[in-house]
Amino acid sequence: MKNFLINIMIFLFFGVAEGQSFISGTVTNGSGEPLTGANIYLKNTYEGCTADGKGEFTLETRLTGSQVLMVSFIGYVNYEEEIVLENTVQKFDIVLKESSNSIDAAVISAGFFEASDKKKSVLLKPLDIVTTANAEGDIYGAVNTLPGTQTVGETGRLFVRGGASYETKTFMDGMLVRSPYTSGLPDIPVRGRFSPFLFNGMIFSTGGYSAEYGQALSSALILNTNALPEEDVTGISLLSVGCGASHTKRWENTSVTISSDYFNLAPYFRIINHSLDWVKEPESIGGTIMFRQKIRKEGMIKTFSSLNSSASSLYYTDYNTGTDDLIKLKDKNFYFNTTYNDMLNDRWMIKGGIACTYDGENLNVNSESINDIHKAYQSRLTLTNLLNDNLSFKFGGEMLYDHYMQLISSPVNDNNYDFGYGNNILSVFIETDIKAGSKVAGRFGVRAEHSSLLSEFTLAPRISLACKTGKKSQVSFAWGVFYQSPRDKYLAYAYRPGSEKAVHYILNYQYRHEKRTFRIEAYYKDYDNLVKYVASDDPYMYIYNSINNAGSGYAKGIDIFWRDMKTLKNADYWISYSFVDTKRNYEDFPVSATPAFVSDHNLSVVFKYWISKLSSQLSITYKYASGRPYYNPNNPEFLADRTKAYQNLSINSSYLTQLFGKFTIIHFSVNNLPGFDNVFGYTYSSEPGADDIFEAHPVKPYAKRTFILAMFISIK
């Protein structure tokens, strides 16, 4: 959260420095439309600003003499003009020409949403994602307003197109993030570990993603971190749940950013009404270090490291015994990656990196203890050859070593378990991008993987096609095969199943014109080789010699997205709707059924309005999800019951001002403002009562409403 709103300010405003020369004017396109957000700066300096909603700008500077005025905007040719600064006012009316490679070009879009500050073809920007009400500054919460996602409020994780949360993987600068979420207690949602504004681009794949990535059955969230920052800056954040500080130092070709944060939810939970019986409210401390080094003309070394520690404990009601279990959770997480990108020459590009993860989680339930320790090490190298404007290919390989250990101690039952595994996955891929003029584009790839633990070789071909149907519209198609190793809790046993498999079919239509976008996508996903097992009476165990790959399933549906940034002045809104029909027979399911995390219908409406006179932005999000299945032992039909529909109306507001002459944001957000009484499912007593009925207990949010009050100060 600490970087969340500081960066909103950077995106929305530019600082005014004292100076003697004034450069002002407008930036428009060939049709006379203002290019809001165009970058205006003096070349090879840190002096710059952005165009406002009318395309107007004013740049003050103390520089003098000959300078080069630069203007840039996504999808347009850069404007460059030599000027002389002589302590006067100069006015420019600048018209940018659209880049030839962005006009009427087919762009492969089936199966993914892209957010970027660098491409004109994207539907969303990073700022669009993180200023969304209901997300509370969490990138996964914001992505959950996009089509294809499921509302599973008690987890906080991403569920995509009928897939379980483990079927979605996160990548940072091409490197796998093994533990992207914070640790969580039962029925309390987790959050992502990273600030959304660490990233200048995002690709959210709902299926059919590139052969460059693997080990994800359903979805991939691909994040690209920022390069060199523009200037030195220090940030201070004060929140209702904690505090944080950061400092960025920029040299000519180098930058270092150091940040730290501390969160303690004890004061917060003492203010709000909630249903939790805390012994120790969640408390965490963490920090990050980011290093950037420019190499030669195009090369860049990026290093990122984060360290976090958290602890919490509460009493959790056991409806089988009628007693309260004391649950304690401690977690330590370390993540590190370093990547190198460069253009070797005009045709060859190189990308490489290494990453490592350590995640240690200790969960105590009364006197029983579960220790999960996960270590992962990855290295990868990719080469891209740009043969010409219409043909390129990339190839590469990676090594991923996973080590997992689980130690279970149960003094009550006098049982102790020790499980674990080590798995080395070697992968190679090749992918070709082909353009047939500006109307047709294709991507053809294949990925091969070998698992040392499973003694298994897999081959996964993938195809994506796009064709322009008009100046503003196109259709896209994607097909691909995807494999994923079973989850840790299955691989830890001696009887290990093979990789799970999914085949994706996706058809997409997209229309974009004058800041309006309509997108509709149909898909079918065929599951095979899913893990099956017979459950054991011991809650920590399965009948391990029953684990196999006999499971199967399907998911089919349609996603619709509409965005309009033109109709309402100073307003922006989008609507996303998803329908999914899915069933699977996996794990300990007795028959094929819709899993408990799936709701057939999901709707999100996001509205944002900029109030110029108040220097404030207001955001409202409404979410609806139809009822989800849940297991009812009183009903002989498996997973046949449904919860009531889920609803949530959330708002947030950010007020930009100055405090002691420093840019300051005051932010306030409320989640579920009307207090909808949502139910995520039910738990049941293990034994029936006198009437032979198993007693039901609803699983609800711990509070009907939650809020955040924060102040962010930027010191330059």
SS strand fraction: over 45%
CATH class descriptor name of the largest domain: Mainly Beta
What are the low-pLDDT stretches, counting only 5+ consecutive residues below 50? 1-19, 116-122
The total number of structural domains is 2
**Total strand count, please?**
38
What is the overall shape? globular
Biggest sheet overview: 22 strands, antiparallel, barrel
**Secondary structure tally, helices:** 5
Question: Roughly how many Å is the radius of gyration?
Answer: 26 Å
The N- to C-terminal Cα distance equals 20 Å
| Helical content band | under 10%
What do we call the CATH topology of the largest domain?
Maltoporin, Chain A
What class, by secondary structure content? mainly beta
